Amino acid sequence: MWRRSKHACLRATQFAKLLFSPHLADSSYLHISTGLHLPVLLSADVQSTCNAGESTGIRIVCGVYMNWKRPLNQQFWKHWQRGLATSPGATKVFRDPRFAKLEESDMQHFQEIVGDKGVIVDSSELEVANTDWMNKYHGQSQLLLRPQTTQQVAEILKFCNSRCLAVVPQGGNTGLVGGSVPVFDEIILNLGAMKSILSFDEVSGILVCEAGCILENLDTFVGTKGFTMPLDLGAKGSCQIGGNVSTNAGGLRLLRYGSLHGNVLGLEVVLANGTVVDMLGTLRKDNTGYDLKQLFIGGEGTLGVVTKVSILTPPKLASTNVAFLACEDYESCQNALKEAKKQLGEILSAFEFIDRPALDMALCHLEGTRDPLPSKHNFYLLVETTGSNEAHDKEKLDAFLEAGMELGYFVDGTVAQDSTQAGSFWEIREGISEALVKAGAVYKYDLSVPIKSFYRIVEDLRAQLGNAAVVVAYGHLGDGNVHLNVSAPKYDEQLLAKIEPFVYEWTAACKGSVSAEHGLGFMKPHALHYSKSEEAIHLMEGFKKLLDPKGILNPYKVLPACAATSTCFVSV
Ligand code: FAD
Ligand code: MLT
Ligand code: ZN
């Protein structure tokens, strides 16, 4: 049961003061004038409440616990979160006091499970693992574990669950929403040492491997067998297949090969209590009961740790062409997409969009890049074809380019003459994220919107921000996925207040998604309701509770109820 030492009846303003007050050091119990009864635990030792599965209270809002069985009034919840949510760069959050702190005896136990090599306490290694790719989210973990087998993962989780030690699963740490790094002192469970290829079927193209395999290495491996990975992204040199699966990464080939929900045929997953769930099928068709693996594809490490993956790889085709095209208006980009689908059909493998500020960002910050075209234009398209017959593909591409030029969709363009030139076009497109990080602070929005609205959000946000920041846009136009980025010299509360909830409300108004492919992580749990109904969120919370009753897996992430602590400013 919760410890409740005091009761207080507070008005909203007093409540706000309480949230912002650094002086509170005792357990309190709030009765807010909305009629909500929220027990507030501010620094009490509440280890005993860890058995959340059996107890009634579980979740926290800045140390405010609510009842799983009696969900908080949703309207209040939304408004409160909207009001307080802020950039993680500026947010100070409250550590969930249900989680235990590491003790010497824990370290000994971990050493017994993974050996000396698997227990990392070196400060420089920890600093890297505590910091995300954008250098925006910083955790304070004192322990990084590198298991080598599923059994070790299972033993680690079983122990952490029994001790109520929080854990953040980590792959290549290239995630863009702060999901892969601890928020506080969560133990980092890095899968990088589990990198064996287990089997490859050269007829079906089905690959089975461990979760820590790096995507590019897998592509090289299947490439030697005449196949290719069904996904490709700028982070391929570092990201791991387990991370890709856990984020349901989209990337540059989704247009052609579809999402991981279709390509992943099976998974092995370890649950929070250490149970190993074998769903590692290699069948294209399997309708025996619920397709449980789908829950973990895009689960962002909150429901289980992916340890093995079975994935369908398509044949690697001999002929690839890449064109870099310029358009003067967005309407023409849309028309070009329509034409590409019509003319290129089955050989179209990517249709990427870059606006001029995004291109400038890349040219300015990425060494060795140069503008592929002699004069400046407003929009660019990177169109790739992949097929099995070079002459046939060229013929199709030429027909598309001619039609596009004649119809006035493109005003200029060039087709890569060799793989080096094609690589230089891709370098620009894939390097924009890195260029943005080099340029300073970046607010990233990864939206799915109807294609006709793809660029309107960019223009509207520019109008909203004026000269306050640079707005750049790029993305997977073929999938309706715009990467809307705001670049500024530093993170700034006032700037953020102009961006959010503007962007989220705009997206909701056109029935878009606030996360097309990057996930919610630590950045966006408060925005989930813009894209999902209350009922759907409630169901998600039910799955979380079922699979991880103590909430030890990647806390403060994905679900608003789990992340509520990230929406307040109380520092600990
Ligand atoms: P991490 O970043 O380590 O983790 C990501 C999330 O998955 C975290 O929540 C983590 O807890 C969880 N996780 C990791 N491994 C496991 C596991 N084994 N079991 C359970 N949970 C796990 N994304 C796209 O969708 N499309 C793109 O085109 C794209 N391009 C990118 C380009 C660049 C330059 C960068 C830096 C990132 C890009 N991303 C893109 C973001 C993308 O999410 C990641 O690159 C990738 O999928 C994450 O893999 P990772 O191994 O780095 O996972
Ligand atoms: C991309 O498409 O380049 C990635 O999703 C990364 C990003 O959005 O910056
Ligand atoms: Zn992307």
Automatic annotation (TrEMBL):
Keyword Flavoprotein in annotation: yes
CDD domains per the UniProt record, alphabetical: RRM_SF (cd00590)
Keyword Flavoprotein: yes
Keywords tagged on the record: FAD, Flavoprotein, Oxidoreductase
Cited InterPro entries: FAD-bd_oxidored_4_C (IPR004113), FAD-bd_PCMH (IPR016166), FAD-bd_PCMH-like_sf (IPR036318), FAD-bd_PCMH_sub1 (IPR016167), FAD-bd_PCMH_sub2 (IPR016169), FAD-linked_Oxase-like_C (IPR016164), FAD-oxidored/transferase_4 (IPR051264), Oxid_FAD_bind_N (IPR006094)
Record-linked Pfam families: FAD-oxidase_C, FAD_binding_4
Cofactor(s) annotated in UniProt: FAD
Annotated ranges, domain FAD-binding PCMH-type: 137-316
Family: Belongs to the FAD-binding oxidoreductase/transferase type 4 family.
Protein name per Swiss-Prot or TrEMBL: FAD-binding PCMH-type domain-containing protein
Species whose genome carries this gene: Sphagnum troendelagicum
Lineage of source species: Eukaryota, Viridiplantae, Streptophyta, Embryophyta, Bryophyta
